[in-house]
């Protein structure tokens, strides 16, 4: 059989390309060689059962996962198993990473809201407009604008941070970043509603929980997905420029007599 037309060679070459940018180069070579080993074992078993060699090659490849699906699964397993800690085993490395990034930011902001409620700023209003005129522009239940750093933190932080946090998750989690962000944000929204209820009759906490649901959740997911995709493309271009292609064509598929 022509090596260039060998089904297993072609499958592994495509798998190698799908893994490019998802795992480090050494890990990519190892994963491709590992799949070559298992495919050869299945090919040997099929040939020994009496299946013609070329037909056995096609059947072995057809029964395997598609290169794209397999590459994502292998990259996810490689990322999850790279660091062996009890927390990662319990929650998963991707979930733990997203929880630390989004959880810390939300914890700091909720603490800030409690400080704002129980230790209100004593600075005077910094505006040429009267409170009634300001309320015409910023009606209830929006925070009362006073152009102080308290107000800027209250409004600016929740608007900007989901873009930043989602981007960080996408850069740090190679596969499944958006799914990890979605799972973590579901828990954060629930906890924000609980903590926001403790701040009543002040409504900032409840408003923040609603804002997390309708703004942070979709923005965090989309930004993490975009960041992860751009990271992979950058790594692919980098490895292609280095011209180090450990494709399956370097491996020899053992032929067995039919």
Task: Describe this protein's structure.
The chain is mainly alpha-helical and 258 residues long. Helices cover 72% and strands 0% of the residues. The chain has 10 helices and no strands. α6 (93-118) runs parallel beside α9 (177-198). The longest helix has 38 residues, at 204-241. It is elongated, with a radius of gyration of 27 Å. The two termini are 13 Å apart.
What's the gist of this structure?
The protein is mainly α and 258 residues long. It has helices at 7-19, 25-48, 53-63, 67-81, 86-91, 93-118, 131-137, 149-172, 177-198, 204-241.
Low-confidence stretches are 245-250
Intertermini distance: 13 Å
Structural class: mainly alpha
Number of strands: 0
Gross geometry? elongated
- Write the H/E string, N to C: HHHHHHHHHH
Mean pLDDT: 82
Strand content: under 5%
* Cα gyration radius (Å): 27 Å
Work out the helix count: 10
User: Level of helix content?
Assistant: over 70%
Q: What does the largest sheet look like? A: none
List the main descriptive attributes of the protein structure presented here:
72% helix, 258 residues, mainly alpha, elongated
SSE order and pairing:
Elements: H1 7-19, H2 25-48, H3 53-63, H4 67-81, H5 86-91, H6 93-118, H7 131-137, H8 149-172, H9 177-198, H10 204-241
Helix pairs in contact: 1-2, 1-4, 2-3, 6-8, 6-9, 8-10, 9-10
